Amino acid sequence: MNLKQLSEALSLSQTTVSRALNGYPEVSAETRKRVVEMARKIGYAPNSQARKLATGRAMAIGHVIPVSQHEMMNPVFMEFIAGAGEAYSRLGYDMVLKVVPDAQVEGAYRELASLKKADAVIVHGPRIHDTRHEILDTLGVPFLIHGRIPGQEEARSWIDMNNAHAFERATDLLLDLGHRRIALLNGLEDMDFAARRRRGFEKALTNRGLSTDPALMRQADMTEPYGAESALDMLDGANPPTAFLVSSMISALGVARVISQKGLQIGRDVSVITHDDALSFLPNGGDDPIFTCTRSSVRYAGQRAAELLIEQILPNPDVPVHEYLEAELIIGQSTGPCHATA
Amino acid sequence: MNLKQLSEALSLSQTTVSRALNGYPEVSAETRKRVVEMARKIGYAPNSQARKLATGRAMAIGHVIPVSQHEMMNPVFMEFIAGAGEAYSRLGYDMVLKVVPDAQVEGAYRELASLKKADAVIVHGPRIHDTRHEILDTLGVPFLIHGRIPGQEEARSWIDMNNAHAFERATDLLLDLGHRRIALLNGLEDMDFAARRRRGFEKALTNRGLSTDPALMRQADMTEPYGAESALDMLDGANPPTAFLVSSMISALGVARVISQKGLQIGRDVSVITHDDALSFLPNGGDDPIFTCTRSSVRYAGQRAAELLIEQILPNPDVPVHEYLEAELIIGQSTGPCHATA
DNA sequence: GGATCCTCCCAAACCGCTTTGAATTACAAC
DNA sequence: GTTGTAATTCAAAGCGGTTTGGGAGGATCC
């Protein structure tokens, strides 16, 4: 069922039918009504490939999700994508998604762009030595970064939360509670967000004249066992931490598991603050959340990213847009004053 | 840079250039070489919309991910998609993904199909009263179900794990260990997989002449707090369970958290078996996994689903294919003999 | 009455690729 | 020298829409 058949059924030209369906003004109300009704009756739906070819727009946004070396799929991506997907369906766009190993990420962006499979792309998980912005520039594809690429803060469009500030505040909170040995369980620090969180952590310490202890700082893919193993090592170590600052709820669950297993009570014997991306399957809410946390919804970030990309960047690709999301610092049950006999 | 320009630069017809690039035999080796080199030199990439229009194939598979009433994004979907995505890039297909509220799932499939945005689709999360197969049939779109739609086992293509058998075996294991009060924390039982798991659980009990206790059976979206709250309620109840059978690692973590908090030891005081989808951010591996589990990798399921859909179903949509994945029953640290003074 | 302006509709070009059907050339066979 | 065959190459016709540039008919204005 194509336009031609529909127009023949109506004894109208394809032009008129097309215009009627797409809301152009140079069609009488009566004709439009007739067209719309007939289209519905015989179940006409425009072929999207043909439309894309004719208009030159793909009406799709590309996402490339990297799978890390260790085959880890970060659930944060999924939640971001859920937010973006909601916005896409509202705005009439499609999402074309590629899930590829780290090493093929650039190639995937190149493909989406040069084959015109997407009008624009979202850059996920920027690294401190990222080069994707250059590739996308030469390809002429508008894009928005979820996070920031160092050195590209002004020139590029991005949406990001204030990682450094959030972790500085979290660290301050622990320091205010009297903690001095604070462990940082971070994500991989070649990722920009993790590097920023570390800087925030370090800044809070140095602001009070404290030094950082490399034995208490780790980075890895943020799995549950990563949290558990790190906590076990550190708590069994010579000079154990009294508090943990963790980059992900998932790893924080591992930390909590180990603390309980050792017969310690979280929030009393050991404090934990985690970053909470507000993942839907790990709600940490209510009046008195399980974990004290810095919270920023990635799902909302995804939604805003899609909106910004479609509404601001596509119509005007040369004006960079920036959006800051402040993380909330929310007090829960997992923090309390330090009781260590310093 | 399009075909026409490329062919002019080579003083060849578009036909020949197209054939040379697409590997057709009726082009001399020398000409092909010349074409390929020039294409690379001037950076020609075929416009995929045009190609799709001309060939009539979208070279894309559609996925529609439902977001449940409670706004929950099931991470299982993401992992499935990671597996499928790997296969798609290998096979030259794209994935077009829609994330929509439960109520709009049908419409999303309809759109993908009637607008020819995808050559085939994957049906996620079948329910016991699902109707998507009918819609897709009338639209004439090949599809593969991840799971099964009751009554459609023979006629449709699907890939599924043996949910009933896995949960029956898990229950048997607990019964063998002497447990008699076993709680089932299931997913929502209007989902086919959850209904099957429940049947497996009940079958194991009735096989030994035991009856089920409604107070020990719950169903919900499988979040961490769901596990925690259910465990807390039940353990504080009049006649607490000595073992838990949980449909998801995420909820199992919640169960484990509560058990530890109550000063009980998991595996000794209370046993837990969980289904383990082998989510990459929740590894439960090693010689002696944290959780005793029934394990079946959804990522592998995603990969196989994509392969089956592209290699078997697309060329021959009328021959249904079925693939069974058996779950392994893996003994970990979370199960042990029942010590309850019955 | 004629020029001007809308309103509404249409034929045809175009988007960039694939594919059909045919033409050209070269060479061997008869 | 004609014919048959294989190897190359090409012009043109789609694929199914959108968009350009008119054109017909009626109303408005001098």
Automatic annotation (TrEMBL), chains A, B:
<dbReference type="GO" id="GO:0003700">
    <property type="term" value="F:DNA-binding transcription factor activity"/>
</dbReference>
<protein>
    <submittedName>
        <fullName>Substrate-binding domain-containing protein</fullName>
    </submittedName>
</protein>
<keyword id="KW-0805">Transcription regulation</keyword>
<keyword id="KW-0238">DNA-binding</keyword>
<dbReference type="Pfam" id="PF13377">
    <property type="entry name" value="Peripla_BP_3"/>
</dbReference>
<dbReference type="InterPro" id="IPR028082">
    <property type="entry name" value="Peripla_BP_I"/>
</dbReference>
<dbReference type="GO" id="GO:0000976">
    <property type="term" value="F:transcription cis-regulatory region binding"/>
</dbReference>
<dbReference type="InterPro" id="IPR010982">
    <property type="entry name" value="Lambda_DNA-bd_dom_sf"/>
</dbReference>
<dbReference type="InterPro" id="IPR000843">
    <property type="entry name" value="HTH_LacI"/>
</dbReference>
<keyword id="KW-0804">Transcription</keyword>
<dbReference type="Pfam" id="PF00356">
    <property type="entry name" value="LacI"/>
</dbReference>
<dbReference type="InterPro" id="IPR046335">
    <property type="entry name" value="LacI/GalR-like_sensor"/>
</dbReference>
<feature type="domain" description="HTH lacI-type">
    <location>
        <begin position="1"/>
        <end position="55"/>
    </location>
</feature>
